Protein: Carbamoyltransferase
Amino acid sequence: MTTGQAEAGAVTAPATAAERRRITVRGVVQGVGFRPFVHTLATELGLTGHVTNTGEGVVTEVEGAAAALAAFGRRIRTDAPPLAVVETVDAEDVVVTGDTGFHILPSRADGLCRTLVSPDAATCEACLAELADPADRRHRHPFLTCTHCGPRFTIVTGVPYDRALTTMDRFPMCPRCAQEYADPADRRFHAQPISCHDCGPRLRLLTADPADRTRPPIPAPGPDPVAGARRLLADGAIVAVKGLGGYHLVCDASNDTAVTLLRRRKARGDKPFALMARHIDDIAHLVRAGAEERALLTGPVRPIVLLRRRPDPAPAPDAPVLSGAVAPGSPDLGVMLPYTPLHHLLLGLPGDPPPVSAPPERGDPHGPRLLVMTSGNVAGEPIVTDDDEAVRRLVHLADAWLTHDRPIRIPCDDSVVRFSDGEPLFLRRSRGYAPLPVPLPVPVRPALATGGDLKNVLCVAEGDRAWLSAHIGDMDDLATQLAFEEAEAHLETVTGVRPQVLATDRHPGYRSGQWAQRHTDGRPLVRVQHHHAHIAAAMAEHGLPDGHPVIGVAFDGTGYGDDHAIWGGEILLADYDGYRRFGQLAYVPLPGGDTTVRRPYRMALAHLRAAGLDWAADLPPVAACPPQERQLLARQLERHLNCVPTSSMGRLFDAVSSLAGICHHAGFEAQAAVALEAAALTAGGDHGPGYAFGLRAAPLGTTGADTVADPAPVLAAVVADLRAGTAPALIAARFHTAVADLVRRGCALARERVGLTTVALTGGVFANTLLAEAAARLLRQDGFTVLRHRRVPPNDGGLALGQIVVAARTAGAAAR
Structure:
């Protein structure tokens, strides 16, 4: 019987007759104060009974008058705690027992887990008020939390969610915390991470010996580790700070010397750093932030939000200065606000004394108001969570460690989000979102998908829900592969999914695929084509049911193709069960693989050669390529040595970035493409005559595609513009317009041939909002329904969702 049916049935019962009802609530209902909420609600309505956590969710039995039961059934959904996500409410009548009072019972671990663990949540306003109140017993407590905020996912060791199954189990509650925990009228009633100065975790500040970094760090002098860390930051030090999901490397974002030193130590190249600001007003002079961005920055998740920089910032007299070394050349700043009590303390509470007695010219006398907050790891490795490992692995990066003794069960990097067309677009879905499930429009067998080797995220699914892990990283090193195994085991634990099917990418060299092959244990392993997975992910997150194929435009850097080439500029006609390659970017040789990715000038030269354009000395990539390397590259292209053909749109962006003289060397993934977008954003409104790709029918039996997009006319037009003295920004803008127009023409041709009217835009290239918004606008003008990613990233961070839908159904069909 549903809640509605139970309420309807209750109307005809005598008003004085007592009834009893068992109500099971599923969703994110553990770790969010749901049982205390139920206790308070039942008591208010004069109902008796009990509530408990189980593997299925929160189960309540309530007894009393029919009208009160009906109100309880309504309000358990509508009045739920702020962090709760109520997915289903099921009710059934049970035998009246004559209970007295209402009680919270111990959790039951019966059956498989089907409840949802809450993500970590930013410190709530009530806790912040206590943090700043000298009269409150939790004044300045770095681990302040309640039922509405604080750590959840990163401290959970098992379910149901109780203190004994979190990393807080080593901290026995003091009498006062125990009293609050047991008091139904208290905000910390059954708050599992509850603690205070007397019983909670402890901070420590360790400092390195600058003369000998091979020696272990020593405890810093002074009674207050936070004050010591603030003093170090104000003096230009780099401090490794332990957060919710791992360590951050932190320095004063206004201090050029400190930021440059961190960039050099971390071998960061020009990759932008993320910022943490004390208050949103502290970055108002630097970036544009609309209502949606402000709501996300100040809400319970508080991810890194990418905000467009103001072209000519005009700071107020007291506004903090930003070092130019934080995000050189980037059109955006990645900004977040404090989301833990420790962050608030580190940035300083109102009335805090200055951390230094140095002259004002050394920085803000009240301490840094903008902090660089970058993942605490060596480049390419996962974020560090273990304290001993943090000292060992970060010893050459940090001058000090602000650490504590509450273990982190699972790493969880900061999420990264930007807004596009008024909707959130994930670039990294992690802290604050993992492990919230994504609803599936088609039922799937219990399955595990391993994602890809870049931006790895794995996924488990069963029935109509899929759970994605936090961001794991690039699978190039052993540390990331071990983190992958930890994340896989943890995700199975908190979801209760026992995979019967494994899914992975078709690339034979992917380490994620090799792991899946080693761990089949007799289960089917389904290899899913990379771009089919991207498209299926977009379809699934938009709830497309079976029998609704789409035109999938998948533009990215690398994906293993059916013909063993490197795909990445694809138009596929696809549904969950399969795909057909309708269109592709023309193949060009990729000389030297990763070497060419790091040196975009090589890709430009390969594209020029394929387009029949000379390597003239006046062209920027020709000048950028050393003469000896240029000779070897010419020979390599002539003889097709180590030259895999590629249709990658990402590599074409690299080529045009170099050809326009914008970026010849890439120190991080997609740097050349990001720089090309940044240049295009400065071009103004009138771009003049545009460029156009050639479209031609593919020769039969060559690539499997019907249509080939030829970039040669675009490249020839770029060369002509260069020689006419056209500004690089204008060339960049015209190229973006040409790619958006290619999407429009390719989809129109597909609609003409097969009649499909829904387009999915996916792949890492569509993280470029200038391109994505332009393409979507043109498609909508032509009457298409456009699907863009809103729940998972368009890049490989969303790959596992598509893999799991395709593979679980493929394996299911084979089994039938």
In short: The chain has 23 helices and 29 strands. Residues 1-15, 357-363 have pLDDT under 50 and may be disordered.
